[in-house]
Amino acid sequence: MKGMSMRVIVSQTKAEMARKAAGDGATLIRNALQARGEANIVLATGASQFEMLENLVRAEGMAWNRVTAFQLDEYVNLPVAHRGSLRLYLWRRFVTQLPLPLRAYHGIDSEAAAEQECRRLDTIIREHPIDVAFIGIGENGHLAFNDPPADFETEKPYIVLHLDERCRRQQFGEGWFSSFEEVPRQGLSMSIRQIMKSKAIICTVPDERKAEAVRNAIEGPVTPLAPASVLQQHDQATIYLDPPAASFLQKKQT
Known about the structure:
Layout: E1 7-10, H1 14-36, E2 39-43, H2 50-56, E3 67-71, E4 73-75, H3 86-93, E5 104-106, H4 114-125, E6 132-135, E7 158-162, H5 165-173, E8 186-190, H6 192-196, E9 200-205, H7 211-219, E10 237-241
Parallel strand pairs: 1-10, 2-3, 2-6, 3-5, 6-9, 9-10
Antiparallel strand pairs: 4-8, 7-8
Helix pairs in contact: 1-2
């Protein structure tokens, strides 16, 4: 975790934000492919990633058959056929939309024993240092399913977590579940330290409902109570915002 060079880019529209984030992310992937002949990426889900992923799968000149992708997080004990399944989300919106098949896609098996699934993914990701992590920020400031107060210390790549009420209400509010009670209470998630090991981070955050979390992440202190604030300590993290998401910021951003 290096020092205080996180960038913030505020676009004029949500569509422009998504194009910029995807374009910059695609460039980082191409750079890794050129340097090493392969690239490793992490993919987030949720409503905030819709437009970014639509642009990313259409990026030109991408040798996706030399890219290995990891899923950022998933619910515990949720059938993969459920509309709230994050693995299903990525399968429909990313994996099957690419012009070339990925070299490998390491999704999270939500129906496997959670701790065993963590160990399986830990073994794989340790052999695949991440070039680009595509992430978002939750309404409660979470990164992946690392709700506040987040664990900034664990070195485990993937961990099992209890989801707080605000996180679960966000998932219900986005329409993934028919009732709040249906939202799972546990998630399997990439840890904060594992996310921060990524060489570059592309963080896409639209909508006013995220504005408070965005302000805390960018202008507040680095604290587990605002998990996304840890991005301030990454030397190649960029947060892409639309005007509503940036509306609580006190300092003018580029």
